[in-house]
Amino acid sequence: MSLEVEGLTIEIQGRRVVDGVSFTVPDGARVGLIGESGSGKSLTALAVLGLLPDGASASGSIRWNGRELIGLSDRELARLRGDEIGIVFQEPRTALNPIRTVGRQIAESVRIHEKASKRDAAARAVAEASRVALPDPERIVSRYPHQLSGGQRQRVAIAMALACRPRLLIADEPTTALDVTIQADILRLLLTLVRDDGMSLVFITHDLAVLSQIATHGVVLEDGRVVEDAPVSTLLTAPSSPVTRGLLRDATATLWRPGPGAPGPVGGDPVGGAA
């Protein structure tokens, strides 16, 4: 299955915030949307699942496996969310329900999309918690979000997004709120799961160093427009846009460092080995 975005325009109360964005995500590809805050990358991703904020409207075309998504009812889009397309948000503390156990939240999409019994869905929640390397999954599924660390909450969010084995995962800056060590662990986990399931990935970030770890192709946005669309190796070594050159200068480079022996996207996968 492939995602095709063509001429996407988003307006909020008459103000154009995304202007004619086009890109494709072929089956199994890992594509990054990168840009500074306010560039339109998160709004572009939210438009795919019909999750734009109140007052926002989208035009143009978003096709998933040939099916036009713009104009679908919320009920029709709800059938896709979590089933064919999963999403992981930047801050799991706000994405997770504070008054439900994490196990119940992981199990919810299984019950909705796979019509699983409560007992079977609970067992799946434990299995999914184990799959994302949460410690002592039988115990942790009975806990509430506030009882977990930031990295554990993000693993729960990933388990929720992938429980029904979607064909496309959208990850909206999922490591920004984490420290560098946990950030690297989450990136390796995501890459491993994407590979194992043969999923496509849209990864949103403002950090080119992070992008180099997870994606093989990058779409650079500025003020709601695409300014560069190229392999990540090209963005790192021969950027054509002043925006991309600025992102390269500003890259934290804590996870990717140029030089002999350094991991990087040139000639192979961004992250070397599964975690």
- Tally the beta strands: 10
Mean pLDDT: 89
Structural class: alpha/beta
Poorly predicted segments: 253-275
Spatial strand sequence of the major β-sheet = 6-7-8-3-9-10
Strand count, sense and barrel status of the largest sheet are:
6 strands, mixed
Overall 3D form? globular
What's the short version?
InterPro entries: AAA+_ATPase (IPR003593), ABC_Ni/Peptide_Import (IPR050388), ABC_transporter-like_ATP-bd (IPR003439), ABC_transporter-like_CS (IPR017871), P-loop_NTPase (IPR027417). This protein has a domain at 91-165.
What features would you describe in this structure?
The protein is of the alpha/beta class. It has a domain at 91-165. It contains 11 helices and 10 strands. The protein has helices spanning 41-48, 74-80, 92-95, 102-114, 118-131, 137-140, 150-162, 180-197, 208-214, 232-237, 242-250; strands spanning 3-12, 15-25, 30-34, 56-64, 67-68, 85-88, 168-172, 200-205, 217-222, 225-231. It has a 6-stranded mixed β-sheet with strand order 6-7-8-3-9-10, with helices on both faces. Strands 2-1-4-5 form a 4-stranded antiparallel β-sheet, with helices on one face. It is globular, with a radius of gyration of 18 Å. The relative contact order is 0.16.
